[in-house]
Amino acid sequence: MMESVGVYGFCGCKxxxxxxxxxxxxxxxxxxxxxxxxxxxxxxxxxxxxxxLSPSHIVNDANSNxxxxxxxxxxxAIDFGTTSSGYAYSFTKEPECIHVMRRWExxxxxxxxxxxxxxxxxxxxxxxxxxxxxxxxxxxDLDPNEAKQWLYLxxxxxxxxxxxxxxxxTDLMAANGKKVKALEIFAYALQYFKEQALKELSDQAGTDFxxxxxxxxxxxxxxxxxxxxxxMRQAAYQAGLASPENSEQLIIALEPEAASIYCxxxxxxxxxxxxxxxxxxxxxxxxxVGAGFAQAKEHIRRNRQSRTFLVENVIGEIWSxxxxxxxxxxxxxxxxxVDLTVHQIRLPEGHLKELxxxxxxxxxxxxxDYEFEKLLCKIFGEDFIEQFKIKRPAAWVDLMIAFESxxxxxxxxxxxxxxxxxxFSFIDYYKKFRGHSVEHALRKSNVDFVKWSSQGMLRMSPxxxxxxxxxxxDSIIEHLRDLFQKPEVSTVKFLFLVGGFAEAPLLQQAVHxxxxxxxxxxxxxxxxxxxxxxxxxxxxxxxxxKVRRSPLTYGVGVLNRYVEGKHPPEKLLVKDGARWCTDxxxxxxxxxxxxxxxxxVKRSYTPxxxxxxxxxxxxxxxxxxxxSFITDPGVKKCGTLRLxxxxxxxxAVPARRExxxxxxxxxxxxxxxxxxxxTSKSVKVGIDFLNY
Length: 692
What we know:
Layout: E1 18-20, E2 26-28, E3 31-32, H1 41-45, E4 50-52, E5 57-59, E6 74-80, E7 84-91, E8 97-100, E9 116-117, E10 119-122, E11 128-131, H2 133-141, H3 144-147, E12 151-154, H4 158-162, E13 171-173, E14 179-181, H5 182-205, E15 214-220, H6 226-239, E16 250-254, H7 255-263, E17 271-273, E18 279-280, E19 283-284, H8 285-302, E20 308-310, H9 317-320, E21 327-333, E22 338-346, E23 351-361, H10 366-380, H11 382-391, H12 393-407, E24 418-421, H13 424-434, H14 438-444, E25 450-453, E26 457-460, H15 462-485, E27 492-498, H16 505-515, E28 520-524, H17 530-540, E29 545-549, E30 553-561, E31 572-575, E32 578-589, E33 594-596, E34 600-607, E35 614-622, E36 636-644, E37 659-664, E38 671-676, E39 681-686
Subunit structure: Interacts with SORL1 (via cytosolic C-terminus); this interaction affects SORL1 internalization and subcellular localization.
Keywords: Acetylation, ATP-binding, Cytoplasm, Nucleotide-binding, Nucleus, Stress response
Function: Adapter protein for SORL1, but not SORT1. Delays SORL1 internalization and affects SORL1 subcellular localization.
């Protein structure tokens, strides 16, 4: 005997079920239709029968969290980047002052950066040793044989974007080829930022700062799938930034949204405009790509000693030109990914509405590094490069540091060659590996735009360097062209180019050439810190973002009356002459549907019998909208609500006991709640994409 199900889970009392609802549905415990061999959750679990009492409806509950809002003394935002990371903070009593983290030891010649490399070093015993420049420099100074025992990781954030089946047990590969748990590495990194920030806050305030005084904000790419966003939250819990019981202490912010929040504050002197029609700071658009941005970077360099940025409590001049309903694109181009987000302005407060779901891909500046690696493979052989990375990992890091500094010198109008120093161990190891010199390899290769310099350098022509950028930049421009074809994006007023890769003159020129006649192109002066500063502002006022697009379709499984010809035969359940369709996906919200921050979707269900002790409601998600059954391809279970129904006498419970199920959307995390109306008992759960 199989018991029928509505929302899938198990029955605490194992009673035979009889369910009724307002739609005059009657559902009884039923035997599996003998003609079907189809295995569904409904048949295999012997679950509790629950059926809808009401259609889904939206409750605008944007102010529901107002009473729960904690007060924090300071907001600390962490920009956990693929290539570099950093933090900034603001005291809630002085929200107009944003302080960027103090300078750390280390640095690279030719690279000006207020952040630190996203590199981490573990001891041979797998204990945390150091992060950033300190990790890289210590690793570099180790004896090559000793270095093989240490676990050095860099650019590991991309693993969260590229792993399709991300779980809490996903591994990362260290430079020496050994595996380590990704969750452990991300937690170590966040714990390091936490300790650095709390120490700096304590030093500045002259008194010890407790973690409970801090609201934390961590930025993630908007195009990350839900499991990756949840993974970052779990790592933050493990690092002690917040806890599941006090989840409000941590906000996961989307990078382009943070950038958008900061851009609304920009004054004319804080940005460069690339659009050909405008003249800014005495430069026309054609001049601005090179000269104007160089002037801005020089201004930033001169002011590097000041780590405090004043954010005026006004709307910037550019933003004040926007009217109700105006649209703009934020292109967040970082080390690993490029995020494209379309926002619309909502007056009078100037709140932001996500108009078109975030798109993009792995088109960050790392793509240029990969092209350089491919070029090295072409010259010296893939077998050698792979062996060199394993046998001389610290020297490989040195080589990529040298390339990074030359990469940043690439420009459309550059005429003189770029020299990249080869580490001595590269030259030495190649001779041992191949039996001839690096110079010989360059002569024999068909790569005529890279020459050997007697000073021990690869000499690349500007065209050769520009060619390394081309595949990545072409991907960004192609993605933007596709975006501009969408009807929602046709009348965009501004394009804000932000993120570390936005500093590249080659990218600026490509965006200007392709879209300068369609909209005004704006680059904040300190473009690499735009997201960090915007994340602080978001932490101070999370209500700035009002409407997002749901990335997924969400629902639960229910029973419907079986309709011949409409429902598939394998879904048929028969008992006492009643015919039921199992596994029906009862939709709460659709993918790409606009959802206001704090919005609740409410649905009412009724359990089988008053004597039932437990109900379990399982939540499902799918990337597409066209979902009929919870067994459809791509539908995944992502949450379970287990509600205890004991504690009320049978006389006090109505014949049709109402169980309200609420889903709260709009925040980066999604929360589900089930409430027994008769007893006011409730249970909450965060939607979970990593453990099902």
